[in-house]
Amino acid sequence: MGTARDLMIVALDAATSRPVTQGDLSLGLAGAEVIDLLGAEVVTLDGDRIVSRLAPPLDDPLLDQAATALVRDKPYEPVEDWLWRRGRGLAQQYVTTLEEEGLVSRPRASWLPFRGTTWPTPVESAARQRALHRGATDEPVLATLAAAVGVRDEVPEDLAAPEDSAEAVLAAVVGAVTELRRRPPPPGHRGRRLSPTSGAVPEPRRPPCQAARTSSMVTGRCSCSDSVHASAIQPASRASSIVQGEGRVPATTSVNAVSSAR
Length: 262
Fold this sequence. Notes:
By secondary structure, this protein is mainly alpha-helical. It has helices at residues 3-14, 22-39, 61-68, 79-86, 90-100, 126-136, 140-149, 164-182, 211-218, 224-232, 236-244; strands at residues 43-46, 49-52, 77-78, 104-105, 121-122. Strands 1-2-3 form a three-stranded antiparallel sheet. Strands 4-5 form a two-stranded antiparallel sheet.
């Protein structure tokens, strides 16, 4: 457990030099929550669907909230649908909670009049050290999520393979972030990033015209691992566009993390 929190902390830690889109991060956090719930044995995956199990309340209030939000009736909810539903505004929820817990703080802006943001930064803590250690050691799940949402450019080609269930979730996150980035920007869009001063941010909301194609990428009807493996054998520019989205600065091998060890 703790992957979602670690992803949020790593993203905030890198935000001063590497802005991250809130919508991308929210989708990544929703995926990280599924992986945390799998680790806590609160859910299992049946194909591409999240099957909830009876479990006591969790110590993490955000993860407990995620568990409460699970669909508990058959046919259950596909991972993809969970990402779009749970991900709506999720990055802000994590920031608010981490700020209340004293794990992040807002900089004093009086001597930084031109910085243009008061987004909080992680304070020195055991939680920050754990998150940074996972990032520095290329822990497969966190490294892949960070690359998918744009916190880092690439992951090592020899990255260890995650468990099958985690791999399925990671592939769903890659597909959802790709679809979000391909959406036409709204009128007046100016590249809204991880900054509260940038106005309304494009949060996860499935593009209706793309839903069928995304579903075929990440559901059991078309193996999600096969889809990600397919990206790995494309030219480098194509591989980078799958994580970075069309029209963004390419990032060599970002998506290959899901299949690099195979």
